[in-house]
């Protein structure tokens, strides 16, 4: 058995290479073998990024790569209904999909959606009638240049496939839970999600990860979203795990003309979280929304890397990320907007605002624009500072304690990044988590 003690930094790379044949042998489906081996070879050629790599210059991965992991999680669990209920948002009218230790558990899930194709990722790979769909969509927009997407392709097994047919509107949000429990060793998950929203269809997904053990969990997730004309896809990421979790999240969204796609990322927990978000415009009159709220402390790190590729005219993208950092927390924001020379009438907005609550907290922020068209409206900006002393004085002069005044100002600061959430239980949950993190009771 692999031990959970820290080992030299290259050991994880060696484990990944050495375990791959055993992983392939454990699969029932083998038609991806050649693709998996090629992806492993690409990973092997490059290895894990270091701070010498431009995209990771502010994020040190040594803490992750310096540990050993089990690649074959135990399936058994003893999660109780009470433990699971605490993870809910009060979403009695939602559907939910529950994965425990990588396996889909129907007895914990509630799926009432009709007229859609929904399968666990592992089952979909074994289903011959979905082979053609996978060959068309799977790994078609995920970057083959990124180390973690190659690693995911080499080892992906867990996750789900959802196809919403033309003009089908899914009224209930779908909450997807990834739970790890009863693992005696540090565990490595490579989750994979594939969402296809056909013309005129609509769906909203909430994704959350939860580690119930004191051992470390490393999750390397890849999600591919395809939104067709006049369709709407919303994906909300609720990241509020414990301090023995690492999450590398890679999301790719390709939109066709007249579509709308939103990815909201709420980062409140986890030892190290890296969010790679890539939007690709494949038509005109597209709207893309990316919002994020980060509030962390101690020695936590959250890194947001975003990119929007404006390849057609008359499209809009909107990025609004807010960060609140305490203790020795470290935040990173690197947002990129690319405007092709034919993408006239582009309207792109990008903003990153941050508040540092302690001397040990830090933020590295770098909004970027690359514009090759001449008739566009593009703006970007960032701010880093502390709370406004005048506003703080104003509130305290009205009998509000310093702690409550700070919390109210911080809540107001973060609030506008929640404005496009139209799922009330989720909006309320985010508000409560904000208040909890700020250490104050606020009535909503």
From TrEMBL:
Pfam families for this protein: SUFBD_core, SufBD_N
Family annotation (InterPro entries): Fe-S_cluster_assembly_SufBD, SUF_FeS_clus_asmbl_SufBD_core, SUF_FeS_clus_asmbl_SufBD_sf, SUF_FeS_clus_asmbl_SufD, SufBD_N
SUPFAM superfamilies in the record: Stabilizer of iron transporter SufD (SSF101960)
SUF system FeS cluster assembly SufBD N-terminal domain residues: 17-176
Start and end residues of each SUF system FeS cluster assembly SufBD core domain: 184-413
Annotated NCBIfam families: sufD
Similarity-based family: Belongs to the iron-sulfur cluster assembly SufBD family.
Record's protein name: Fe-S cluster assembly protein SufD
Organism: Chryseobacterium sediminis
């Amino acid at each position: 058995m692999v031990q959970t003690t820290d080992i030299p930094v290259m050991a994880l790379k060696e484990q990944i290479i050495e375990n791959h044949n055993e992983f392939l042998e454990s699969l029932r489906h083998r038609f991806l073998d050649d693709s998996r081996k090629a992806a492993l070879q690409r990973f092997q050629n490059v290895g894990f990024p270091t701070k010498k790599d431009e995209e990771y210059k502010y994020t040190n991965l040594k803490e992750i790569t310096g540990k050993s992991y089990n690649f074959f999680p135990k399936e058994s669990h003893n999660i109780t209904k009470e433990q699971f209920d605490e993870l809910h948002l009060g979403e009695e009218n939602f559907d939910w999909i529950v994965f425990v230790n990588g396996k889909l558990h129907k007895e914990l899930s509630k799926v009432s959606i009709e007229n859609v194709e929904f399968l666990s990722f592992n089952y979909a790979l074994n289903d011959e009638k979905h082979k053609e769909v996978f060959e068309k969509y799977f790994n078609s927009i995920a970057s083959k240049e990124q180390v973690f997407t190659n690693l995911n392709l080499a080892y992906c097994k867990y996750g789900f496939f959802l196809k919403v047919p033309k003009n089908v509107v899914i009224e209930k949000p779908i909450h997807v839970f990834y739970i790890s429990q009863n693992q005696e060793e540090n565990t490595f998950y490579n989750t994979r999600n594939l969402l296809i929203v056909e013309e005129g269809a609509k769906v909203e997904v909430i994704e959350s990860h939860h580690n119930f053990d004191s051992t470390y969990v490393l999750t390397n997730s890849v999600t591919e979203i395809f939104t067709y004309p006049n369709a709407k896809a919303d994906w909300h990421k609720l990241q509020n795990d414990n301090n023995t979790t690492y999450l590398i999240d890679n999301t790719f969204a390709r939109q066709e003309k007249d579509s709308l796609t939103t990815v909201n990322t709420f980062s409140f927990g986890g030892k190290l979280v890296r969010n790679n978000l890539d939007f690709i415009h494949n038509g005109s009159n597209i709207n893309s929304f990316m919002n994020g709220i980060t509030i962390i402390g101690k020695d936590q790190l959250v890194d947001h890397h975003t990119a929007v590729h404006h390849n057609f005219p008359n499209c809009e993208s909107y990025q609004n990320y807010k960060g609140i950092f305490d203790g020795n927390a470290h935040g990173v924001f690197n947002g990129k907007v690319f405007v092709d020379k034919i993408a006239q009438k582009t309207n792109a907005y990008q903003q990153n605002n941050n508040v540092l609550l302690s001397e040990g907290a830090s933020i590295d922020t770098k909004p970027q624009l690359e514009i090759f068209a001449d008739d566009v409206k593009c703006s970007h900006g960032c701010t880093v500072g502390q709370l406004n002393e005048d506003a703080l004085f104003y509130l305290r002069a009205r009998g509000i304690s310093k702690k409550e005044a700070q919390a109210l100002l911080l809540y107001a600061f973060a609030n506008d990044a929640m404005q496009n959430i139209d799922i009330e239980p989720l909006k309320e949950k985010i508000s409560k988590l904000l208040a909890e993190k700020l250490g104050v009771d606020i009535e909503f």
